[in-house]
Design a protein that fits this description.
CATH class: Alpha Beta
CATH architecture: 3-Layer(aba) Sandwich
Number of helices: 7
Number of strands: 7
Number of domains: 1
Structural class: alpha/beta
Shape: globular
Radius of gyration: 18 Å
CATH superfamily: Flavodoxin domain
Oligomer: single chain
CATH topology: Rossmann fold
Length: 196
């Protein structure tokens, strides 16, 4: 049986957590799923055993993880031949001021344009303010960003903003579309014409 793969880039762990949550939902739907850290992709990795892929990355300082960018560029041709989805994780999604929301869309569009990848499904999830996992400088930078968007600035604790219902819905809708596409492709041509 073919498998799906969820591949992610994560800096402080929230994107990894989302990737594993997506995989759990897909498995509940009967899919076999591998979860791979984008920084630990085997050198001989191939998409051949997989019938679909979900890729996720988090946005930091105006860009996504370089490991994810490299993966997409290296496997772009294979990505064009299977169903694909992408999820973006950022603090901006938790505090969607119009200007920041527009900038998030621009950064996502730029990333996809630069990689030449065209995923069939895209989602944007709120991440977390993981103050406890930041170094001193990054903690100060993130505190300043938090102040700007109205997020908590108390660095003595972390704050999670991910909408887990949205994560579940994303996984369920992706696998539902896969099964629908498979059923439609299995319909005999004559029957397919009668149905249109």
């Amino acid at each position: 049986m073919n498998k799906m793969v969820v591949l992610y880039g994560s800096s402080e762990g929230q994107t990894a957590k989302i990737a594993n949550a997506l995989a759990a939902v897909l498995r509940e739907k009967g899919e076999m799923v591998d979860v791979i850290d984008g920084q630990r992709v085997p050198t001989d990795f191939s998409l051949a055993p997989y019938h679909a892929i979900i890729i996720g990355a988090s946005l930091h300082v105006g860009g996504y993880q370089s490991s994810i960018r490299r993966f997409i560029q290296q496997h772009r041709q294979a990505l064009e031949h299977i169903p694909t989805a992408f999820f973006s994780v950022s603090l901006t999604e938790a505090y969607p001021h119009p200007e920041e929301k527009a900038r998030l869309k621009q950064l996502l569009a730029k990333f996809l344009q630069e990689t030449g990848w065209h995923p069939q499904k895209i989602a944007s999830f709120a991440g977390s303010l993981a103050y406890s996992k930041y170094g001193f400088i990054k903690r100060m930078i993130m505190q300043r960003i938090a102040r700007k968007v109205g997020a908590p600035t108390d660095t003595s604790r972390d704050y999670e903003y991910t909408n887990w219902e949205a994560v579940t819905h994303f996984a369920e809708s992706f696998v539902a579309e896969l099964h629908l596409d498979h059923r439609q492709s299995s319909i005999p041509l004559s029957l397919s014409k009668e149905a249109t």
